[in-house]
Amino acid sequence: MRHITYLCLAAAGIAALSGCEKDIDVAEMERKFQGVNVVDESDLNDVMLTVGDPNESVAYFQRASASDPSRIDLTRGLALSLVRAKRVSEGSVAWAKVVAHPDSTSEDRVNLADALIRSNDWAKAESVLNAVPPTYETFKRYRLEAMIADGNEDWNKADSFYEIAVGLTTKPASVLNNWGYSKLTRGDYSEAERLFSDAIRQDTTLFTAKNNLVLARGAQGNYTLPVVPMTQIERAELLHSMGLAAIKRGDVELGKGLLREAVDTHPRHFDAASRALDALEDA
């Protein structure tokens, strides 16, 4: 009899729960779960933008944006992934689609300009940047503006934009290196040397700035290596660059000596320096 009572109570409980379920708003539940899924998907999108293989990120966003082409966040993720995968021509097309979206931002236009510069379409990049409101002031925007001004040989604008860009970032090494290279191409070697030194102080691992610094010194007839942090391989490569700079200035014997030192310094066989030295000896 006790077992029958328990069975009855259980049946009554199930019936009560069934009655409660009928009162739940199914549409509301679906809406709540949909919101959770959007949050989870947003997290996944962020993860896919930083995965080790950028082509995996491209494949993910291609599938996602194809299933819902109206979503600007998915097209934006695809554009970012394509540029990260060095597929800049495709990236430019994707960024153009983002910019054409009614919800696009000034940042999207700057990213389109960046992709266009990477694909060597400087004129179009300049046109895109000109459409960005002057009130939108970011490091990336002014770095690109400086590069375009450099290409147009508008040195006053270039210097102004480089200076603004340096002030808008806590990591100015790369833009200081670009600014220094601009000065180097103009023949302002002492100013280029200063900017390359500043870049190295900001980032002691930036080898391009070290190499450019050597070129700036060599162009002034200064063939001593700068006192900057360097590995043994970097030292050999910098000696090689300085040797070539000396030869370019007509100091051939000095240059040959620097090339020999580069070969001796390198921990392995330094083919480039050896070939340059052999060519000079044969001549």
UniProtKB/TrEMBL annotation:
It comes from the Bacteria. InterPro entries: TPR-like_helical_dom_sf. Gene3D superfamilies: Tetratricopeptide repeat domain. This is Tetratricopeptide repeat protein.
